[in-house]
Structure formats: structure tokens, C-alpha cells
């Protein structure tokens, strides 16, 4: 770490299990969503508690957590931000631990593997474990989430699955919807923390219910983004200006977030600054949408639910990445560019 950053940020290096912990929050996973979520949570907590609050951050990419902590400490002098290198240290440091990770393997890794949250819960006194609240906002498979939450519960702590809807703009504005699964008690405990990052905190039911709702929502979104791209291409082929077509759809029965906020054609909704205005940078990575389609397809197979459109959408996102691997990190509305080039190839 650079010396200037070292003055602003403390690196927590103790691996000693604590007997008591402050009411601080640890945030693990400072990616496109986690970073603005942690910023909102910490800055609002600072404002409410009038400073003196302590926060802890952790990311597999150390440079990312260093930059986050350093920038935050500069903006909010007097705030203590600790960097930790493992989920275990994050749990030792705080009673509330929030995770915002890419998917199932990362959640398994952070919770169940050596240096993870579950082994750490075994090392702290039972009362300390009982005071622990784990909030996982990752979109992952329902079964793994239920197994992890049950393991957390067996060790005396509480856990909710709290995946989000609203994308990067919602994370930045603090207007996310949190879809929460877990006991009602755990939901009530998590709600005040979630309200610092979101607008709608929706109780969906028992453990895994938040994820079930999230997977169904993203099934709709993934299909819509493709069909909006198809319509925008077809309309232009028929001689319509894309701005005119977008404003017709957005004020008609075809209106949806994929068109009104995340329209894939540059110049159509410039006030919303969608990723297409930046060559599809930022936003919701196509690899993550492909992952979410896979989650929907797998759970539909397991529950014998027909998913003809979802299955087709999964194949299309897979082809988008296969065709141009760089698209994996770009916003999933880049499916428009893939279809446009496909059209030009006269396939
Ligand atoms: P991302 O890939 O940008 O960020 C994930 C972060 O987790 C990265 O910084 C990565 O370094 C970190 N990480 C990975 N493994 C780790 C580990 N073992 N320990 C600590 N840190 C680790 O992903 P994102 O776009 O922020 O999405 C996060 C989750 O939110 C995903 O499940 C995604 O499906 C969901 N989601 C994303 C959006 C969106 O628009 N980006 C919207 C809604 C939901």
C-alpha cells in the first residue's frame, strides 16, 4: 500500500478471535455493485452516527479495496476504514457481514473454505456468534444459499439472502430493491442496514425465497433485453429513427427497463446514460446475465417447469460471449451489437 493511503486507512492484521466486537459492518466484494452499495451504506451510517463509525472492507483484488478505503477516508476524514485479507478477519471485526460476490462458487469459497465465515464462527464465543448477522446479496443458486444459511444458523448466527434489483444505477443512487429470504427475525434485523442501500426492502419468505424471486425477475429481464434489441433492429430496418421508436415503445405497452433505461441503441435515452453510450462498459456484465439464465434453466429443470424463452435466451447470451469473448465483461445490452453484426453477416 502507498504511504499516503497508509495514513488514511488501517490494515487489520489480527487473526485473534475477539471476545466482543464493535457494531461495525464488514463488506466483502467491492465490484460494480458492491462498491457503490458499500459507499452508500458507510456514508449514510457516518452521517447518522456523526462520525466515529468503523467499517471493514475485503475484496479478492486488494488494489480495489485499498482504493475504496483510501477514497472513502479522504472524503470522510475521521472515519476508520480497515482493510482485511480474508472473510475470517471480516467476521472477527464486525457483527454484520455483507457479501456481494459474483456467484455460487465465490459464496461457497467465502463461507465454507479455510479462512471463511463458517470456520470463523466456530472460533468465536457462542454469544458473539449469536450476535452475528450475515447478509448475502449475491445472485446464486437457491440450494447453495439454503445450505449455507442453515450452516450459519447451526453455529448460532443469523443469515438472510438479499439479492438486489436495480442494477448499477440503483446501487449508485441507493434505490435498490432488496429481495429478502430468511426468518422474519433475521429480516427485521437486516432491514435497517438494507435501507441505507435501497428503497424497497421486500420480504419474500423463508431462506432462499429472495433468490427464487431474483432468478425469476432476471429471467424476465434477460429475455426482454434481447427482444428490445430485436425490435430496435427491426424498426431501423423498416426506416424508423431509433429515437422515435424508443419513445414509442417507452410510452406504449412494450415499455420496460430494458428499453426505457437500458436501451441498447446509443442516443435513444441519453438522459439515462445507459452502457451503450460507453461502448457497453459498466452495467451488468454479460457473463453474469448468462450465469443468471443458467440459474433459471437449472431450477426450471429441477422443478420440471417449461422455459422455452429462457432456454433460448441462455443460448443467445452464450453465443454473444463465444462470438466475442470481450463482451463477457460488457453490459448484457451488447446483445444488440451481436444481433446487428449477425444481421450484417446475413445469417
Ligand atoms: P463484479 O464481478 O463486478 O464484482 C464482484 C466482486 O467480488 C469483485 O470485486 C471480486 O474481486 C470480488 N470477489 C470475488 N471473489 C471474492 C472472494 N473470494 N473474496 C472477496 N472478494 C471476492 O460483480 P457485480 O456486478 O458487482 O455483481 C455482484 C452480484 O450482484 C452478482 O451476483 C450479480 O449477479 C448481482 N447483480 C449485479 C447487477 C449489476 O448490474 N452488475 C445487478 C443486480 C445483481
Give keywords.
3-OH-isobutyrate_DH-rel_CS, 2 domains, alpha/beta, 3-stranded mixed sheet, oxidoreductase, binds nicotinamide-adenine-dinucleotide, Rossmann fold
Task: Give the helix/strand layout.
Elements (H helix, E strand, L loop, with lengths): L2 H6 L1 E2 L13 E4 L5 H16 L4 E5 L3 H14 L4 E4 L3 H7 L2 E4 L4 H9 L4 H7 L2 H5 L2 E4 L5 H13 L3 E4 L2 E2 L1 H7 L2 E6 L2 H12 L2 E8 L3 H29 L4 H9 L6 H4 L25 H17 L5 H16 L11 H10 L3
Parallel strand pairs: 1-4, 2-3, 2-5, 3-4, 5-6, 6-7, 9-10
Antiparallel strand pairs: 8-9
The structure holds nicotinamide-adenine-dinucleotide.
Nicotinamide-adenine-dinucleotide binds next to α5, α9 and α14.
Family: Belongs to the HIBADH-related family. 3-hydroxyisobutyrate dehydrogenase subfamily.
Catalytic activity: 3-hydroxy-2-methylpropanoate + NAD(+) = 2-methyl-3-oxopropanoate + NADH + H(+)
Protein name: 3-hydroxyisobutyrate dehydrogenase
Amino acid at each position: 500500500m502507498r504511504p499516503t493511503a497508509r495514513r488514511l486507512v488501517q490494515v487489520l492484521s489480527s487473526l485473534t478471535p475477539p471476545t466482543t466486537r464493535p457494531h461495525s459492518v464488514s463488506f466483502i466484494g467491492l465490484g460494480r455493485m458492491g462498491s457503490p452499495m458499500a459507499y452508500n451504506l458507510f456514508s449514510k451510517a457516518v452521517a447518522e452516527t456523526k462520525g466515529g463509525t468503523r467499517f471493514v472492507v475485503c475484496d479478492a483484488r486488494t488494489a480495489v479495496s485499498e482504493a475504496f478505503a483510501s477514497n472513502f477516508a479522504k472524503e470522510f476524514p475521521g472515519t476508520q476504514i480497515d482493510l482485511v485479507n480474508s472473510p475470517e478477519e471480516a467476521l472477527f471485526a464486525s457483527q454484520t457481514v455483507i457479501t456481494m460476490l459474483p456467484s455460487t462458487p465465490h459464496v461457497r469459497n467465502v463461507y465454507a473454505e479455510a479462512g471463511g465465515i463458517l470456520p470463523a464462527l466456530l472460533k468465536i464465543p457462542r454469544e458473539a456468534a449469536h450476535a452475528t448477522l450475515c447478509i448475502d446479496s449475491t445472485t446464486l443458486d437457491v440450494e447453495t444459499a439454503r445450505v449455507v444459511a442453515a450452516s450459519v444458523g447451526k453455529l448460532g448466527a443469523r443469515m438472510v439472502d438479499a439479492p438486489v434489483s436495480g442494477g448499477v444505477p440503483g446501487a449508485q443512487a441507493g434505490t435498490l430493491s432488496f429481495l429478502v429470504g430468511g426468518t422474519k427475525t433475521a429480516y427485521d434485523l437486516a432491514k435497517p442496514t438494507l435501507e441505507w442501500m435501497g428503497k424497497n426492502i421486500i420480504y419474500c419468505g423463508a431462506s432462499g425465497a429472495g433468490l427464487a424471486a431474483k432468478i425469476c425477475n432476471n429471467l424476465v429481464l434477460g429475455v426482454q433485453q434481447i427482444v428490445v434489441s430485436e425490435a430496435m433492429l427491426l424498426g431501423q430496418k423498416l426506416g424508423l429513427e431509433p429515437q422515435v421508436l424508443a419513445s414509442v415503445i417507452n410510452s406504449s405497452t412494450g415499455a420496460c427497463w430494458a428499453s426505457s433505461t437500458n436501451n441498447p441503441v446509443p442516443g435513444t435515452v441519453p438522459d439515462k446514460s445507459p452502457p451503450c453510450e460507453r461502448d457497453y462498459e459498466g452495467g451488468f456484465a454479460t457473463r453474469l446475465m448468462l450465469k443468471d439464465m443458467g440459474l433459471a434453466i437449472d431450477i426450471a429443470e429441477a422443478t420440471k417447469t417449461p422455459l422455452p424463452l429462457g432456454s433460448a435466451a441462455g443460448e443467445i447470451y452464450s453465443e454473444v460471449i463465444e462470438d466475442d469473448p470481450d463482451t463477457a465483461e460488457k453490459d448484457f445490452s451488447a446483445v444488440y451489437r451481436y444481433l446487428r453484426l449477425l444481421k450484417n453477416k446475413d445469417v
